[in-house]
Amino acid sequence: MRKGNFWRCVLPSMLAFACSGVYAIVDGFFIGRNLGDPGLAAINIAYPVTALLQALGTGIGVGGSVLMVSEGTGSEAKIRQDQKRILLLLLFAAAAMTVLGSAVKDPVLHMLGARGEIYELGRIYLRIILTGAVFQLLGTGLIPVLRNMDRAFLAMIFMMSGFFTNMILDYLLIEVIPMGMFGAALATAAGQGVTAVTSLLYLLKKSVLKRGGASEEGRLIQWDRIKRMLVIGLSPFGLTLSPNLILLVMNKSLTVYAGDHEVAVYAVISYVIVVVQLLLQGVGDGSQPLFSLCLGMGDVKSCGRYRSMAYWFAAAIGAAGMASLYLFRREVPLMFGASPEVMETYGKVILIFCAGLIPYSFIRVTASYFYATRQNLQAYILAYGEPAGVAVWLLILPHVIGVTGIWLAVPLSQLTVAGAALLLRKKEELSRNLQINGEVGKGESI
To answer: Is 318 in a helix, a strand, or coil?
Structure first.
């Protein structure tokens, strides 16, 4: 085990995810300035579709990469075949989402509450996003492949290139050339396109189309292996989609039990808390290649040491996030033009959300460890436990303590799932110790 490997994998991953978190803030800034409230509302309503595309790409990319690294260690031919399978799955998913999404986008917008001008703007946005679904899928799905090729820094460069492309085009196509929502969607698709194309070209040149070495092993279409990739990918898919599911159920509860004031408060909270959460996701996803590689090599001790480093570093990030959100609790709402009433409520409520950041850091690293080492059931519990927990608490708490119960739902769910993560880790350690002691006992009896 080398500590340098940990930092080389995790730090670029964190920076890349931090940029992805600013994506939405930049879009909101330009759209809000030029299209006003209807534009912001249309983006927020249509965003779950974009989030679904990104989650699909992440699930396929990470699921395939885990299998590629944990079972392909030492065989260049196996790794190349798995990369081809990942690429084919991403292209198939993109084609399916383009066709299916284009067919159902109108009823989906109605279901999400879009009406009038917001509905028309949402249709424009989704038409471009779904047409460019291949960029969304490849842009998010190939980055984990590069990380698992020990190219974390390069993956960061490709992601940041997409971010800066999106930011520049947002300015040009919304402010300089007033193309409205069409320009906003085009900028988003183009940004993902830059990430997708650069990642694809590198992968094709350096690995997939590389000549020489061992002959290709087995058929490209192996349904059992593809199924295993998808089974592993369900966890990172859920972890990526989870914040958006929580956003949906929280907004729904706030509209039912509270009002526009509380919705505005949560909008500010969701913008800033997601940056800290994405940094923590960067720690978990950046550690995954190391966990999977250790599994492929049978190096349990190094895997445990990397996991401990990830826990401590994620906890430090969570603590720093808590401190920053607390210290700047008055300044942050001003950035979004919040009213004095929203500022006052935000200053109180953000402290409740801060309480969940340390448990959240433990959940992210543990979930990444479980799916990286192909302990799928445990990973599913953590990936889907948080949004499920929020939904359950929201069914109970608002009836008992009103709006305060809505604010408490997220941190309480995070504390509950973190407890489950701790129990699952203890159970795994106990099982491993029993297995080791059993093997020692057999050796002594022989």
So the answer is: helix
Q: Which residues contact 152 (CB under 8 A, 6 or more apart)?
A: 8, 9, 10, 12, 13, 146, 286, 289
3-to-147, 248, 287 alpha-carbon distances in Å: 17, 39, 12
- Segment 35-48 shows an average pLDDT of 73
Query: Chain-wide mean pLDDT for the chain?
Result: 85
* Half-sphere CA count of 331, side-chain side, radius 13 A: 5
Amino acid at 55: A
- CB-based burial, 373-406: b 16+ in 10 Å, e otherwise: bbbbebbbbbbbbbbbbbbebbeebbeeeebebb
* Tens of pLDDT, residues 264-321: 788 788 878 888 888 999 899 899 988 888 887 888 888 889 999 999 999 999 999 9
Residue owning tokens 């057999």: 442
Whether the Cβ atoms of residue 397 and residue 413 lie closer than 8 Å to each other: no
Integer Cα distance of 334 and 363 in angstroms: 31
- Per DSSP, helices labelled H in 258-339 are 260-297, 300-327, 331-335
Q: Is the pTM of this model over 0.70?
A: yes
Interacting residues of 414 by C-beta distance below 8 A, sequence separation 6+: 356, 359, 360, 363, 386, 389
Closest by CA to 383, choosing from 140, 12, 55, 54, is 55
Over the stretch 127-139, which tens digit does the pLDDT of each residue have?
989 998 999 999 9
Q: What is the distance between the alpha carbons of residues 191 and 159, in angstroms, rounded to a whole number?
A: 9
Using DSSP's 3-state secondary structure scheme, residue 2 falls into: coil
Dihedral sign for Cα atoms in the order 156, 158, 163, 167: positive
| Structure token pair of residue 230 | 């998808």
Phi, psi (deg, nearest 5) at residue 214 = -70, 155
Tens of pLDDT, residues 371-416: 998 899 999 999 999 999 999 999 999 999 989 999 999 999 999 9
Among residues 132, 108, 250, 107, the alpha carbon closest in space to that of 193 is found at 132
pLDDT score recorded for residue 234: 92
Distance between CA 249 and CA 255 in Å, rounded?
A: 10
- Does residue 446 surpass a pLDDT of 60? no
* Sequence letter at residue 121: L
Among positive and negative, which fits the CA dihedral 398, 334, 114, 59? negative
Q: Please state the φ and ψ torsions of residue 373, each to the nearest 5 degrees.
A: -100, 15
Other beta carbons less than 10 A from residue 361's beta carbon? 30
